[in-house]
Write a structure and sequence with these properties.
The protein is of the alpha/beta class. It has helices at 106-120, 137-144, 151-170, 189-195, 226-240, 255-272, 324-336, 338-341, 345-351, 404-412, and strands spanning 87-88, 96-101, 124-131, 179-184, 244-248, 284-288, 316-321, 355-362. α1 runs antiparallel to α7, α3 (151-170) packs antiparallel against α7 (324-336) and α5 packs across α6. The structure holds zinc ion (ZN).
């Protein structure tokens, strides 16, 4: 952890350590048991305790292949049993955490438990939403009853998702002052990056805006250009001065997720080049996966999230165990994203588990990363897995075979 003596960033609010949250009676309640932790920031894989981790034999390293690709029967990491025995991530006290979410709901799907643990240990959390999730035609049609939604419908939907996100974050006791909406176009981030900095602003095919159509946006007058987005993220990082940043992993198959990582990396490199900016660079990037086609396991497969079949060098996967109260709060937050819960309940339940997992990149490794690599969307190629903590194959886990319908549904969600 870095910056013990730093004062709070202007965009942050001092969060109160909350202790255990009151557990609610929730329909989505998942069974779990708190897991032990060690004093070390990262526990050795050899002593990591997972309820489903069992005895050897050790499993082979996971394979990498394009999302949705046919899976050979018994292929390690896919056709075989899921692998669970990840190194455990422990949250240090008084941590400053910045969570960057492409869409409202990603913050809770990926890091609802992480945010709670940071706050419970006297830390601070700020959440940045890249988009307001206003480019989801099926969900807008469901919400409005309009088979062919108009630009006004899409903008109204963006406002609704913003409101849902604020309610969701209340479950973690995160106040609106600690939340920033950039208002960039849902579904347009990859294209904005691809166009480069010196082009006319991108226009959303949904809201028809070429700048945020929301007065609450961080800068509603800024055009949809990569130059503007990089500047905004760089500014927000400087304000938050985080120790850790949680951000989508670049091998996520959703283009907005992949592009979010790219923009953050470009922003960090821009910030580091400014006088004094290097002191604002976080110690760690905690990258998270939401969309992979074959991951997470379907809700019918119980237990903690296993090792994903993808990664990128130099990241290493870690697991963050959640206790029962943290799971309850996370489920309540997810239910607050009502427009999304109605569209992808299955993914919500698949990710609401007794742990969250992150592929962690340490600061010394930032220099090895280049914005735009790996590329996003159709150009995506899964990187070869880097060195991983020791893993074991759990004989208690069945060998679920995701169906093509699973992959298709996962690919559709935002
Ligand atoms: Zn998303």
């Amino acid at each position: 952890m870095r910056g013990k003596g730093k004062g709070p960033g202007p965009g942050l609010v001092v969060a109160v350590a909350l202790g255990a949250l009151v557990a609610g009676a929730l329909a989505l309640r998942l069974g779990s048991a708190p897991q032990t932790t060690s004093p070390a920031a990262v526990r050795s894989p050899a002593v990591a305790a997972s309820p489903l981790a069992a005895a050897p034999p050790p499993a082979a390293a996971p394979t990498s292949s394009p999302p949705g690709a046919p899976v050979p029967p018994g292929a390690p990491g896919r056709g075989a049993a899921y692998q669970h025995d990840l190194a455990t991530l422990e949250v240090p006290p008084k941590l400053r955490l910045l969570v960057i979410a492409p869409h409202p709901d990603d913050e809770s799907l990926a890091a609802g438990g992480l945010m709670q643990q940071v706050l419970e240990k006297g830390g601070r959390v700020h959440v940045v939403f890249m988009t307001s999730g206003d480019g989801y035609p099926e969900a807008v049609a469901l919400a409005t009853g309009h088979r062919q939604p108009t630009a006004v419908d899409y903008r109204g939907f963006g406002e609704l998702r913003r409101a849902e996100a604020l309610v969701a974050l209340e479950h973690y006791h995160i106040l609106p002052v600690s939340v920033t909406f950039l208002g960039f176009p849902d579904g347009g981030l990859q294209e904005i990056w691809r166009r480069g900095p010196h082009v006319p602003a991108y226009q959303s095919p949904y809201t028809h805006g070429d700048r945020p159509p929301y007065p609450e946006a961080f800068n509603p007058h800024a055009g949809y250009t990569s130059h503007e987005l990089i500047n905004q993220i760089s500014h927000l990082v400087a304000l938050a001065d985080p120790d850790w940043i949680a951000v989508p992993i670049p091998v996520d198959t959703h283009p907005d997720h992949c592009a979010t990582f790219t923009f953050l990396l470009a922003a960090l490199k821009s910030l580091a080049a400014e006088p004094g900016g290097d002191s604002k660079i976080p110690d760690r990037l905690l990258t998270y996966l939401v969309h992979d086609g074959w991951w997470p396991p379907p809700p019918s497969v119980p237990g903690p999230l296993p090792l994903p079949p993808v990664t990128f060098p130099p990241a290493r996967w870690y697991s963050l165990p959640l206790d029962a109260a943290q799971i309850d709060a996370k489920l309540a937050a997810l239910e607050s994203h009502g427009t999304q819960a109605a569209m992808m309940d299955r993914l919500f339940r698949a990710l609401a588990r007794p742990n969250e997992i992150f592929a962690v990149v340490e600061r010394p490794d930032f220099a090895r990363l280049k914005p735009g690599e790996p590329p996003c969307g159709p150009e995506l190629r899964h990187a070869e897995p880097g060195p991983q903590p020791a893993v074991v194959e759990s004989p208690r886990q069945p060998a679920p075979t995701p169906t093509p319908a699973d992959a298709e549904r996962h690919a559709r969600v935002r």
